[in-house]
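so the lab meeting is tmrw and i was supposed to have these ready like two days ago... anyway. pasting both below. for each one the top line is the aa sequence and the line under it is the structure tokens. i havent really looked at them closely yet so no promises
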Amino acid sequence: MAVAKAEMPAWMRRPGAPAAVDAVIFLHYGMMWVATAACLAMVIGRRAFRLVEGSPVLSSASSLSLYSLTVGVLLYPVAIMLVGFRGMSSASKSKGNSKDTKVPPTPRQIARKMLKDPVMAGALVVMAFIMLIPAGDFGVVDLSLPKGSHKAGVGSVLRDVGILGACVVNCFIIVPTTLLRQWRMR
């Protein structure tokens, strides 16, 4: 049974369509990067510079994080569809050029290849940091510390370490690597 090649839809052949697709994809990733960078600035401001919750720096970083996250989440369904379409069309272009038949990879080979990918490794690290956030908020600290200790301080440090680690990995590993891959796929 022959498989038909993926063809570019008619709307993608219009003169401005690839630029619009790029704009939506990169705007989504940009907004998500700004949201995590503003969250990172909030944690650093609170911890390193001892800023209180009502300070103008923390409130502006909080509102910037909230608004950019809102725009990024609203763009997410459209951007992820466009990324998937671009990936499928680039994969069909590359498959059409090769004539060799390969043995399908084993699940072990697939897992090894995925773990060598910096985005996937970064996502696993982010998940580990994200697990610290509820641990600091909801009482892992309450179970382990004796009475009279600084439970709230330890809990807030655990929460901030989780937020800080997740934001750093997202800002400096996941989003830049993903953007470079999208840029090369153009």
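ok protien two:
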Amino acid sequence: MRNLAKETNNTLRDSVYSALKAMIVTGQIPPGARVTESDIAAKLNVSRTPVREAFNRLERDGLVTGRPRQGYAVTEFDINMFREAFDIRELLDGHATELAAAAATEKDKARLRAMLAECERLAAIADRTTREKFQELEVGIDLHRVIAEISGNAMLHGMLCGILDRCQHYVWTELLWLDEWKIARDEHAEIVEAICAGDAKRAGALARDYAQLGGRTLIAGKPYAPVYDVAMKEVAEILGRPGERRQVLAIGDGMLTDIKGAADNGFDVLYVSGGIHARDYGDASQPDPARLAAFLDRHGYHPVAVIPRLR
């Protein structure tokens, strides 16, 4: 942990806020955990004043909730808030990006390209630490803030920044679980390319797709990253074409919540790798395709393909 004690007041406030936010977003302080000003002040080697200010900002961001005489509680996953945040983000991000494509100056374009280059620099670091990964996440999120700033609409910029603060934890989870760092960088590059070309229609569509698909992936439940390579290969064979990662939900244990999440969000392919609960749709050692199909039918979920596999 870096020593923040010697930084100037303004820098110290921002540094404490960023450090505490990073601990929450990356799960070092887990959802539901109780945290106090004194605990964080000791951990960061600072006084309680900048910590108190940081908690106030994080409460406005929706990342913590103050509890009288009990400190703060880290916000737990709220599926309704999640849906609402990503729905609003899709609308605001798309509109802001369209406006930015029409308004961007050469200086603005250079600024956006520099942010892409910074993401590539961070991605090239071997054996990255959690902090270095979080830095790439921050640059990626800030790219959308800057695009909204370039749009010239101050109210839109303010609203989108608030929504992005609430989405950060979920974006981090998506990047980490699905290892989608390169996909995110490529999609950001496409958005910036469209803005620099002055193609407002394409830029807005790309931004809306980026926001929508990100929410659609995460809301379905925790995917199991190690089975993705195998899943994608088999999906391509079944569909007769390469599948997109965000169209495929690959899970490692067939949990009821994951299946229900896939049903709610209409994933094209469900890839189940691992033990299955007998009371739901199979026995513990081998997925039973017939029982799995019956379970899915009860939920009205009919994906293009269902691929049950052993561990």
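from a quick look at the 2nd one: The first strand starts at residue 34 and ends at 35. Residues 1 and 138 are 18 Å apart (CA to CA). will dig more after coffe
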